[in-house]
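I would like you to sit down with the pair of lines that follows and say whether C-alpha coordinates and residues agree.
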Amino acid sequence: MSDTTQEPAAESSSGGSESLKAFRAILAAEAAAGIVHAKPVENVVYPVPEGAPLAKVGVEARAAERKLVSGRARVTLGGGTVIMGKMLDVSKLGASLMLEDLLAVKKTCTLDCDIFHNGKRYVFSVPALSVHAVLVSGKGFKVGFQFGPRAPAATQTLDDLLK
Protein backbone atom coordinates (compact mmCIF):
# COMPACT_ATOMS: atom_id res chain seq x y z
CA MET A 1 0.00 0.00 0.00
CA SER A 2 1.44 3.36 -0.96
CA ASP A 3 1.43 6.37 1.31
CA THR A 4 0.01 9.21 -0.73
CA THR A 5 -1.20 12.51 0.56
CA GLN A 6 -3.07 15.05 -1.43
CA GLU A 7 -1.97 18.66 -1.40
CA PRO A 8 -4.77 21.22 -1.47
CA ALA A 9 -5.01 22.88 -4.85
CA ALA A 10 -3.57 26.38 -4.94
CA GLU A 11 -6.19 29.07 -5.19
CA SER A 12 -6.19 30.79 -8.54
CA SER A 13 -6.12 34.56 -8.16
CA SER A 14 -5.83 35.37 -11.84
CA GLY A 15 -9.28 34.32 -13.07
CA GLY A 16 -12.61 36.07 -12.98
CA SER A 17 -14.10 39.25 -14.37
CA GLU A 18 -12.30 42.56 -14.69
CA SER A 19 -14.22 43.80 -11.66
CA LEU A 20 -13.03 40.84 -9.58
CA LYS A 21 -9.44 41.39 -10.71
CA ALA A 22 -9.68 45.08 -9.72
CA PHE A 23 -11.11 44.10 -6.34
CA ARG A 24 -8.26 41.64 -5.76
CA ALA A 25 -5.74 44.34 -6.67
CA ILE A 26 -7.31 46.71 -4.12
CA LEU A 27 -7.20 44.04 -1.42
CA ALA A 28 -3.55 43.24 -2.25
CA ALA A 29 -2.59 46.93 -2.06
CA GLU A 30 -4.38 47.29 1.29
CA ALA A 31 -2.65 44.17 2.64
CA ALA A 32 0.74 45.53 1.51
CA ALA A 33 -0.04 48.81 3.29
CA GLY A 34 -0.88 46.92 6.49
CA ILE A 35 -4.63 47.58 6.39
CA VAL A 36 -6.43 44.76 8.15
CA HIS A 37 -10.14 44.14 7.63
CA ALA A 38 -12.26 42.79 10.44
CA LYS A 39 -13.37 39.19 10.09
CA PRO A 40 -17.09 38.73 9.43
CA VAL A 41 -19.23 37.94 12.44
CA GLU A 42 -20.92 34.58 11.97
CA ASN A 43 -22.99 34.18 15.10
CA VAL A 44 -24.80 37.36 16.00
CA VAL A 45 -27.47 37.48 18.67
CA TYR A 46 -29.89 40.37 18.31
CA PRO A 47 -31.77 41.43 21.43
CA VAL A 48 -35.52 41.12 20.95
CA PRO A 49 -37.56 43.73 22.83
CA GLU A 50 -40.34 42.18 24.86
CA GLY A 51 -43.52 41.93 22.79
CA ALA A 52 -41.81 42.91 19.51
CA PRO A 53 -42.80 40.88 16.44
CA LEU A 54 -39.90 38.67 15.35
CA ALA A 55 -40.24 39.57 11.65
CA LYS A 56 -39.29 43.21 12.36
CA VAL A 57 -36.09 42.39 14.28
CA GLY A 58 -32.72 41.47 12.77
CA VAL A 59 -30.61 42.19 9.75
CA GLU A 60 -33.46 42.31 7.22
CA ALA A 61 -35.59 44.86 9.09
CA ARG A 62 -35.99 47.92 6.87
CA ALA A 63 -36.92 51.44 7.84
CA ALA A 64 -38.54 51.98 4.42
CA GLU A 65 -39.90 49.61 1.79
CA ARG A 66 -37.81 49.13 -1.34
CA LYS A 67 -39.22 49.13 -4.85
CA LEU A 68 -37.48 47.31 -7.71
CA VAL A 69 -37.00 49.74 -10.59
CA SER A 70 -35.33 50.00 -13.96
CA GLY A 71 -33.34 53.02 -14.97
CA ARG A 72 -30.03 54.82 -15.02
CA ALA A 73 -28.14 56.87 -12.50
CA ARG A 74 -25.21 59.22 -12.68
CA VAL A 75 -23.01 59.36 -9.57
CA THR A 76 -21.09 62.65 -9.36
CA LEU A 77 -18.31 62.63 -6.76
CA GLY A 78 -16.52 65.64 -5.31
CA GLY A 79 -13.98 66.88 -7.81
CA GLY A 80 -16.30 66.25 -10.76
CA THR A 81 -15.70 62.51 -11.27
CA VAL A 82 -18.78 60.95 -12.90
CA ILE A 83 -19.69 57.25 -12.73
CA MET A 84 -22.64 55.81 -14.66
CA GLY A 85 -24.72 53.03 -13.15
CA LYS A 86 -27.92 51.02 -13.41
CA MET A 87 -30.72 51.49 -10.86
CA LEU A 88 -31.73 48.31 -9.02
CA ASP A 89 -34.08 49.51 -6.29
CA VAL A 90 -35.13 52.66 -4.49
CA SER A 91 -36.82 53.64 -1.23
CA LYS A 92 -37.57 56.93 0.52
CA LEU A 93 -34.22 56.68 2.30
CA GLY A 94 -31.85 55.40 -0.39
CA ALA A 95 -31.13 53.36 -3.49
CA SER A 96 -29.02 50.49 -4.81
CA LEU A 97 -27.08 50.78 -8.05
CA MET A 98 -25.00 48.41 -10.13
CA LEU A 99 -21.64 49.98 -11.01
CA GLU A 100 -18.78 48.69 -13.16
CA ASP A 101 -16.11 49.83 -10.70
CA LEU A 102 -15.82 49.64 -6.94
CA LEU A 103 -16.86 52.78 -5.07
CA ALA A 104 -15.53 53.11 -1.54
CA VAL A 105 -17.99 53.45 1.32
CA LYS A 106 -18.56 56.80 3.02
CA LYS A 107 -18.15 58.75 -0.20
CA THR A 108 -20.46 61.73 -0.57
CA CYS A 109 -21.90 62.32 -4.02
CA THR A 110 -24.89 63.53 -5.97
CA LEU A 111 -27.18 60.95 -7.57
CA ASP A 112 -28.99 61.98 -10.74
CA CYS A 113 -31.64 59.28 -11.23
CA ASP A 114 -33.67 58.58 -14.37
CA ILE A 115 -36.16 55.80 -13.57
CA PHE A 116 -38.83 54.18 -15.74
CA HIS A 117 -41.61 52.50 -13.76
CA ASN A 118 -45.10 51.43 -14.86
CA GLY A 119 -44.85 53.39 -18.10
CA LYS A 120 -43.79 56.65 -16.43
CA ARG A 121 -40.46 58.43 -16.23
CA TYR A 122 -39.22 59.78 -12.88
CA VAL A 123 -36.20 62.10 -12.81
CA PHE A 124 -34.69 63.49 -9.62
CA SER A 125 -31.37 64.50 -8.11
CA VAL A 126 -30.35 63.95 -4.47
CA PRO A 127 -27.20 64.21 -2.36
CA ALA A 128 -26.18 60.76 -1.12
CA LEU A 129 -23.60 58.78 0.83
CA SER A 130 -22.30 55.35 -0.24
CA VAL A 131 -22.94 52.94 2.62
CA HIS A 132 -21.99 49.51 1.24
CA ALA A 133 -20.50 47.85 -1.81
CA VAL A 134 -20.74 44.17 -2.72
CA LEU A 135 -19.04 42.32 -5.56
CA VAL A 136 -21.64 40.64 -7.79
CA SER A 137 -20.09 37.76 -9.69
CA GLY A 138 -19.36 38.74 -13.27
CA LYS A 139 -21.59 41.83 -13.19
CA GLY A 140 -19.74 44.51 -11.22
CA PHE A 141 -20.51 46.02 -7.84
CA LYS A 142 -23.84 46.56 -6.10
CA VAL A 143 -23.48 49.83 -4.20
CA GLY A 144 -26.00 51.08 -1.65
CA PHE A 145 -26.57 54.79 -1.13
CA GLN A 146 -28.30 56.64 1.69
CA PHE A 147 -30.04 59.83 0.61
CA GLY A 148 -29.16 63.12 2.24
CA PRO A 149 -31.43 66.17 2.56
CA ARG A 150 -33.69 66.36 -0.49
CA ALA A 151 -35.22 69.27 -2.31
CA PRO A 152 -39.06 69.38 -2.19
CA ALA A 153 -39.24 68.47 -5.90
CA ALA A 154 -37.10 65.34 -5.38
CA THR A 155 -39.21 64.35 -2.36
CA GLN A 156 -42.42 64.73 -4.40
CA THR A 157 -40.98 62.65 -7.27
CA LEU A 158 -39.96 59.89 -4.84
CA ASP A 159 -43.40 59.94 -3.21
CA ASP A 160 -45.07 59.62 -6.62
CA LEU A 161 -42.76 56.74 -7.60
CA LEU A 162 -43.22 54.82 -4.37
CA LYS A 163 -47.06 54.99 -4.30
Remarks:
- The longest helix spans residues 18-32.
- The helical segments are 18-32, 152-161.
- Confidence is low (pLDDT under 50) at residues 1-12, 55-60.
- The two ends are 73 Å apart (CA to CA).
